[in-house]
Amino acid sequence: MPITVLVVDDQELMRMGLKMVLGAHPDIEVIGEAENGAAAISRAKELRPDVVLMDVRMPVVDGVSATQRIVEAGDGCRVLMMTTFDLDEHLLGALRAGASGFLLKDTPPEDLVSAIRSVAGGDAVVSPKVTKRLLDRLIGDDPGGTRDPVVLDVLTAREREVLEQIAAGRSNAEIAEQLYLSEATVKTHVGRVLTKLGLRDRVQAVVLAYETGLVRPGG
Length: 219
Fold this sequence. Notes:
It contains ten helices and five strands, in the order E-H-E-H-E-H-E-H-E-H-H-H-H-H-H. By secondary structure, the chain is of the alpha/beta class. It has a five-stranded parallel β-sheet, sandwiched between helices. Helix 3 links the parallel strand 3 and strand 4.
């Protein structure tokens, strides 16, 4: 079965371009589109796509609010945000609202396709370049973090190391190389970190690592 995608953007040319890029891959099917957040909420409920490719700034209802509504509906749709650096201030809200990651609008087509596949498979897309810039900006004004680090006490020393690596935006393979572990072992550790901390995915793990001060902005 192909991965079904709902494309949401207020610019028709952008929607057309995204549909052309995704339509070139037989394992991905664009089953609908929406021009604003309100339409996205309605179409997601109607079509129940695997992935909603969501713009941030749109009329009627913005992408962050739409993401929260879609995730709260519990239909199993996963949201992948597309944005530009000048919209950094919106993205932490998007992640907290339930987005499974975010990409820049100038992301190469092959990276976009890979991200959609990852999100559809239950993973989250955390780009080191984007994540660090975003969180450095949003959390940098509070060097002590915004969450009590005691929440991390449930983790073993190795699990804390893995969380640090996740926060750096590294994949399981890259973490395995950094910590001299097998990729299967890393996958097990990642699962335990998420379970112990009550997190949905790696994106939430990144945010928590910054908020607790485990990873410092710019560090």
